[in-house]
Amino acid sequence: MIPRRDFVCAVAGTLLGAPLGVAAQQAPRVYRIGFLAFGSETAAAPYLKAFEEGLREFGYVKGRNIAIEYRFAEGKTERLPGLAAELVGFPVDVIMPGPALAYFPGPAAVAASRLTKTIPIVMFHADPVGSGLVTSLARPGGNITGLPLFNPAIVGKQLALINEVVPRAGLVAVLRNPTNSAHARSVSELEVAARSVQVQLQVFPARQPDEFETAFSAITRERARAVLVLGDSMFFLHRAGIADLAKRQRLPTMSVQREHAGAGGLMAYGANLADIYRRAATYVDKILKGAKPADLPIEQPTKFELVINMKTAKALDLTLSPSILARADEVIQ
Q: 291-312, pLDDT tens digit by residue?
């Protein structure tokens, strides 16, 4: 027979333990991430997959403890404020203004930053300091941190590569969008790099797609032997048209996004976007665990990729050396 005191203690323990057991069995909190992109879902799909893989490494699984609200502007800048307002209105725990490949100058990040100063933002941006989004890379300040997609070393490397493919290029044209705030720094970096490889540069502007024909006509008149296409949302969206104009003028091109090479451009060299998306999950995890964006340093890209379109090379009668082909991360046949 159980002594009365032991019986009372056992019952009390059971009653006290019951709520704890129920609480332990309750579903975990579901965090909500708002993904806002300038481009399309189709274009972003492989990179969003990398981001979700990165989240899983930290134990976040869609449908279990995390939900992602996707918003895509389909290349229409005027839609971004309304889509950003939807995400702020939920509200979400973190906003991630993704580049969706068309990541210069980061219109999604700008749209989100104008609507909230409290919801953490993990952004991708070409020039976050120059655009005023953050105070510095080391200490961003405010509610924004993330990963820049511009590294000053990129354009110098691009110029060196195109000069290797077109020896003694002489004049290299630079296709620039004057409305892009990141391009001024890119041109400055290119001017320094041009002196080291003894190449002349000439900048040709294009603010809208209907200015491409004029720009390429001028490039041909000036007898440029190659074109370096700076990273830009508008250039990305119309990459097939740019590649077609370049091939018609028999001009090899170099760009920052691999999709330019896929659309018929000769070469692309830039940051590996899949790696950047995967690394973005690290920032999201830290924020969800209590870290403040203001205290999370903005890290530079660490992985880069070279993509070469051999079909375009053959169409231009270019012979690429075994050395440069061996350095390519992907060769499109």
A: 999 999 998 888 999 999 999 9
State the helix-helix crossing angle for 152-165 and 183-197, rounded to 10 degrees.
Answer: 50
What single DSSP character describes residue 232?
A: -
Which pLDDT score, from 0 to 100, does residue 10 have? 47
The domain 152-271+305-332 belongs to what CATH superfamily? Response regulator (3.40.50.2300)
CA 94 to chain CA centroid, Å, is 17
Residue from 261, 241, 270, 276 nearest 310 by CA: 261
Cα–Cα distance list, 320 to 161, 202, 229, 255, 269 (Å): 11, 25, 20, 17, 16
Strand 253-255 to 226-229 pairing: parallel
The answer to whether residue 239 scores a pLDDT higher than 90 is yes
- Give every strand in the sheet of 66-72, ordered side by side: 66-72, 31-37, 94-98, 121-125, 144-148
Q: 153-189: buried (b, 16+ CB within 10 Å) or exposed (e) per residue?
A: ebbbbbbbbbbebbeebeebbbbbbeebbbbeebbeb
Q: What is the β-pairing status of strands 304-309 and 267-271? A: antiparallel
| Number of helical (H) and strand (E) elements in the chain, helices listed first | 13, 12
Model pTM? 0.80
Pick the CATH number of 31-148+273-302 from 3.40.50.2300, 3.20.20.80, 3.60.15.10, 1.10.10.920: 3.40.50.2300
SS3 37: strand
Residues 6+ apart with CB under 8 A from 121: 94, 95, 96, 97, 109, 112, 113, 143, 144, 145, 146, 293
Query: Hey, CA dihedral for 32, 34, 40, 45, is it positive or negative?
Result: negative
Domain locations in the chain?
A: 31-148+273-302, 152-271+305-332
Instruction: Check if the beta carbon of residue 109 is closer than 8 Å to that of residue 97.
Output: yes
